[in-house]
Each structure stands twice: as C-alpha cells, then as structure tokens.
C-alpha cells in the first residue's frame, strides 16, 4: 500500500508564518521508495464565518487589501467573509478542545473586523485551506448577527484596514459570477448558504 512518511524537517524562514523544508519518503505500491523535498508553509489554524442579519436578510462581508493579491498585480481589495487566526491564547483557554478555541476566535474576529455581535453561531466543518503547500486548517461557520457593539475595521497594530459592506445573497452570487468575489473560502460559504437558504434566510 502506498504511503508517505515524514523523515525530517528544517526551518527555511520564520516570520508571521514559518516555511519548513520537509524530507518525505514516498513509498509506492510496487515497493519503490523515493525521497522527496517539499516546502511546507506552517501556518496557524484559522476561522472563517459568513455573517447574516436576520432583520434585513443581508450578508455582512469585509473588504481589505491582501499582500499576495497585490503581489500578483491585482490592484483591488478582497471581498471576504470575516476570518482570522486562532491565537495561542485561544488554545491555552481550551487546550483539549480545538473547536472551543475556534469558537472564541470567531467571536473576537467578528467584533474586531465588523463590530457586529453574534446572536447565533453554527459550526459547519474544518478543512485544509491548501494541502499542497500549507498546514492551515480552516474552521467554517455561519452566524446570525443582531447589533453593532463596536466600530470594527480591524486592528491597525496588525496592519488591518477593513471596510465592512452588506449585500443580499443574490448580489453575492452575482459577484462570484463577475469575478468580483475571488476568495475561495468566501465562495464556499456563499454556495453553502445558497443550498441551505431556507435554514438561515427564510
């Protein structure tokens, strides 16, 4: 049976994330073994949550500049569902319960980025964001918000400059078709909501 085994790692770069060089042993069904070198971006696990207002049925998004997109020459801010890292403090509060730590991160990120208060939070699933290069696991949520409790806009100390915007589900779907929403995690949540619209928006 084919298998991949981690043999050793070394750090190439350490910054906001860590870039590791992993030496992997690929074992094939026919018995052949090949040693592979793979760069692995060791990124913190994160959360992403699509917000909706029960009173207006509008969806709440963030819009902000993302360095990799600008690096690619795309000169526009990215429309996204609210997202952020699960901090070490979140794990420290719940060392045996990753989902509980993710729940804390969701509440914090929504307040910091949008200013909205979560009235109802639904956890969906946890998926690897880009398993070909990154270790990041992303915890997906949908949440109902009921009132603004602070300004939002993100933390300037973290380099954030976030604009909050609202639109209907149909408008969001149209923006996907027009390639105005280009963030994969956001598209996944919009399409999930489209399928389960009756549960949340009706």
UniProtKB/TrEMBL annotation:
The keyword Cell membrane does not apply. The keyword Mitochondrion does not apply. Coiled coil: none annotated. GO terms for molecular function: hydrolase activity, acting on acid anhydrides, in phosphorus-containing anhydrides; metal ion binding. One of its GO terms (cellular component) is cytosol. Residues 42-189 form the Nudix hydrolase domain. Mg(2+) binds at residues 83, 109, 113, 160. InterPro entries: NDP_pyrophosphatase, NUDIX_hydrolase-like_dom_sf, NUDIX_hydrolase_dom. It catalyses: GDP-alpha-D-mannose + H2O = alpha-D-mannose 1-phosphate + GMP + 2 H(+). Its cofactor is Mg(2+). One of its GO terms (biological process) is ribose phosphate metabolic process. Keywords: Hydrolase, Magnesium, Metal-binding. Homodimer. Belongs to the Nudix hydrolase family. NudK subfamily. PANTHER family: NUDIX HYDROLASE DOMAIN-CONTAINING PROTEIN, UDP/ADP-SUGAR PYROPHOSPHATASE. This is GDP-mannose pyrophosphatase. It comes from Commensalibacter papalotli. The lineage of its organism: Bacteria, Pseudomonadati, Pseudomonadota, Alphaproteobacteria, Acetobacterales.
């Amino acid at each position: 049976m084919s298998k991949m085994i981690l043999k050793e790692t070394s750090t190439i770069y350490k910054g906001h994330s860590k870039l590791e060089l992993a030496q992997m042993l690929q074992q094939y069904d026919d018995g052949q073994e090949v040693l592979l070198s793979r760069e692995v971006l060791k990124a913190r696990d994160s959360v992403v949550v699509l917000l909706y207002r029960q009173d207006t049925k509008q969806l709440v998004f963030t819009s902000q500049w993302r360095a990799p997109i600008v690096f690619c020459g795309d000169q526009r801010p990215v429309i996204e569902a609210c997202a952020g890292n699960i901090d070490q403090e979140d794990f420290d509060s719940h060392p045996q319960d990753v989902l509980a730590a993710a729940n804390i991160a969701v509440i914090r990120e929504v307040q910091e980025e949008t200013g909205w208060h979560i009235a109802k939070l639904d956890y969906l699933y946890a998926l690897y964001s880009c398993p070909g290069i990154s270790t990041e696991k992303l915890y997906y949520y949908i949440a109902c918000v009921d009132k603004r409790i602070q300004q939002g806009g993100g933390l300037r100390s973290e380099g954030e400059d976030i604009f909050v915007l609202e639109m209907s589900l149909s408008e969001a779907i149209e923006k996907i078709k027009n390639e105005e929403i280009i963030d994969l995690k956001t598209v996944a949540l919009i399409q999930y909501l489209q399928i389960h619209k009756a549960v949340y928006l009706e």
